[in-house]
Specification:
38% of the residues are buried. The protein is built from eight helices and 20 strands. Strands 6-7-8-3-9-10 form a six-stranded mixed beta sheet, with helices on both faces. Strands 13-12-11-14-20 form a five-stranded antiparallel beta sheet, with no helix packed on it. The longest helix is centred in the middle third of the chain and has 18 residues, at 167-184. Helix 2 (93-103) crosses helix 3 (108-121). It has 364 residues and is α+β, with helices and mostly antiparallel strands.
Length: 364
């Protein structure tokens, strides 16, 4: 099936600086696609090119099979919500939502009905006659979303729209955004540097790094099967342990840690061979820790560690431990594990994991 929005080999340079380099992505109709990455990774540049706020150096964008870049920005009929609310301070909430409809010459009866519908959608009917200055930050952003959706754009672009809000309010608006997306079915391109926000909101996530898309997938796919060390570090928390590959056969790789401790895994990386340096990635919640006398680790290859810190987090216990080569790693286990009284700061313990949970990357 042909994608609704096609981004094809976009490249943008500023003199010798490459902002994005041959970025390609297909977005399905009605999909919530998030561009995730650190500052300067190219995610906003890509969004602005789709919006018409920047011109690409190379590449094409197709919307419903038709070239988009040749269309003037004000004719693209694309909705846009920015980090700052950009509401007209001299207009009421209702007039702000009505503005794009009146600019398009819609009849007043349609404008009135649409404003009513949009304010109902964002749960702000009671604020219709208020001025923007009389609203909270979260309410102002919901008005901005209502205004952007008022003229039924085929695509809604959102650039860090919640980053100016506090954590609690940000989470509330995230739930509102999911509801609005489900109710309207609008195609959304959403830019954020917040991995948790991306996981909460998205159907799929495109992970940007240094002007390139490193991987595209659902949050679960990116978390369980990161294609690169960068993706593994940016989606969720990870421990990265240095190893030297000793054996490569039948889709499995054996390796040793810097202290000579052997480790086997189901991980396989075709770019690595015996003798190569690699990096083993294990999530904190996929590791198990037990006291030396507890016998909780079943594997004979359990790694001995020194406990540096133990923190109770309500639903979980967090352990900071040092490996024999003095690298600190993190372990997260269910809070019930706190009853293992043998695990205390300064004591020796054993760490183990399931070979299926390990990922192996080339050394950075």
């Amino acid at each position: 099936m042909t994608a609704f929005l096609q981004i094809q080999r976009l490249r943008k340079t500023y003199d010798d600086v490459v902002a994005i380099d041959r970025v390609s992505l297909d977005v399905r109709k009605g999909e919530f696609m998030t561009f995730l990455g650190p500052s300067g990774s190219g995610k906003s540049t890509t969004l602005y090119i789709v919006a018409g706020l920047q011109e690409p150096t190379e590449g094409r964008v197709l919307l419903d099979g038709k070239p988009l870049l040749e269309v003037a920005p004000n004719k693209r009929n694309i909705g846009m919500v920015f980090q700052r609310y950009t509401l007209f301070p001299h207009l009421t909430v209702g007039e702000n939502v009505a503005f794009p409809l009146r600019v398009r010459g819609r009849p007043e009866s349609e404008v009135k009905a649409k404003v009513e519908k949009m304010l109902k959608l964002v749960h702000l009917c009671e604020c219709r006659d208020r001025m923007p200055a009389q609203l909270s930050g979260g309410q102002q952003q919901r008005v901005a979303i209502a205004r952007a959706l008022a003229y039924d754009p085929p695509v809604l672009l959102m650039d860090e729209p919640l980053s100016a809000l506090d954590k609690k309010l940000r989470e509330e608006i995230q739930l509102e955004l999911r509801r609005i997306h489900q109710e309207t079915g609008v195609t959304i391109l959403y830019v954020t540097h917040d991995q948790e926000e991306a996981l909460r909101l998205s159907d799929r996530i495109a992970v940007f790094n240094k002007g390139l898309i490193e991987q595209v997938g659902t949050g679960e796919e990116l978390y369980a099967n990161p294609a690169s060390r960068f993706v593994a570090s940016f989606i969720g928390n990870s421990n990265f342990l240095p190893v030297k590959v000793t054996k490569n056969s039948e889709g499995r790789m054996n390796s040793v840690f810097p202290n000579g401790h052997e480790v086997a895994s189901n991980a396989f990386n075709p770019s690595l061979s015996a003798g190569d340096d690699g990096t083993l990635m294990i999530r904190p919640e996929q590791m198990r820790i037990s006291s030396l006398q507890g016998g909780g680790c079943k594997s004979g290859t359990a790694l001995p560690v020194t406990v540096r810190d133990v923190t109770y987090l309500g639903d979980a216990m967090h352990y900071a431990v040092a490996t024999p080569w003095q690298q600190e790693i993190s372990i997260r286990m269910p809070a019930a594990h706190r009853h293992d009284s043998g695990i205390m700061i300064g004591t020796q313990a054993l760490v183990d994991w399931d070979a299926r949970d390990v990922r192996l990357f080339a050394q950075a």
